[in-house]
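User: Last request for today: this protein with guanosine-5'-triphosphate, please.
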Amino acid sequence: MSKFGTIVVGPAGAGKTTFCSALISHLRANKRSCFYINLDPAAEEFAYEPDVDIKDLISLEDVMEEMGLGPNGGLIYCFEFLLDNLDFLTEPLETVTEEYLIVIDMPGQIELYTHVPILPALVKHLMRGSLNINMCAAYLLEATFIVDRPKFFAGTLSAMSAMLMLEIPHVNILSKMDLVKGTIARRDLKRFIHPDVGLLDEEVPDSTSHDTPGDDDDPYAAGNVMGGSSFRRLNRAVGQLIDDFSMVSFLQLDAQDEDSVGAILAYIDDAIQYHEAQEPKEPNDEIDTDMGDRD
Ligand SMILES: Nc1nc2c(ncn2[C@@H]2O[C@H](COP(=O)(O)OP(=O)(O)OP(=O)(O)O)[C@@H](O)[C@H]2O)c(=O)[nH]1
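Assistant: Here's the final one, the structure of the complex with guanosine-5'-triphosphate:
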């Protein structure tokens, strides 16, 4: 029996939980079943009660208090604990049938999928072995980043890094489109939807705020650790890297707009089906939960 799921990732505040809720509303309105998993041990408010909530396994608050850890260390601890207790996910998911879309809401700490291989290990567990779920990652980046082009390209790079690290079907999504629509011409928007490295060359910083030695807030300032031209060269190199891979383009999401949610769901469905048709599974692959060297 096939199972289908999407794991919703992206930086803090990108709109992941809101997107999960919008997705669930859309699925319900279209008489599709959904199995909602919250893996953010700090999340407190949900429009829909999760079917599985990591907080029933471990509480971030308790971990921080008892282990004397900060929020990021505490989160990593929670996920290590989850990986040591995967039955918490496996048992309820075993009964989920192919009519369901499994929706997994993740925390926003980028360390989870860039610095330590927690997320790849989790995804491997879901996709292989007894669960055998056909998964697609949905990576959210806030559309408001486009007002700061280096920041937008840094976000795009993290989306690409997640794609390469997870190695599963992947859709990239510019969330909160309602906040930028009307502020940017359609033609210009296209250059962010399919990231165009030329945007960085056109970045003309405000001349009044530059080259002020020691201005810590201004990345272009001459007194900064990396002076203006170094910063621009770095941005261009990052942009070129993204351009060379030609891997990233974005779907547009306004969580209040049913049509945009439906269109994204169609892409997720297609990505999952396409992958299922292309790649035979390797059910006996070992799950690597080794966190490796974290120094
Ligand atoms: N205008 C607008 N705001 C949105 C949209 N989606 C989410 N938001 C707002 O963005 C804020 C963060 O949304 P969340 O859904 O909590 O974001 P998250 O990625 O789950 O956050 P973390 O779990 O903390 O990483 C909330 O105030 C939401 O109401 C959208 O499409 N448009």
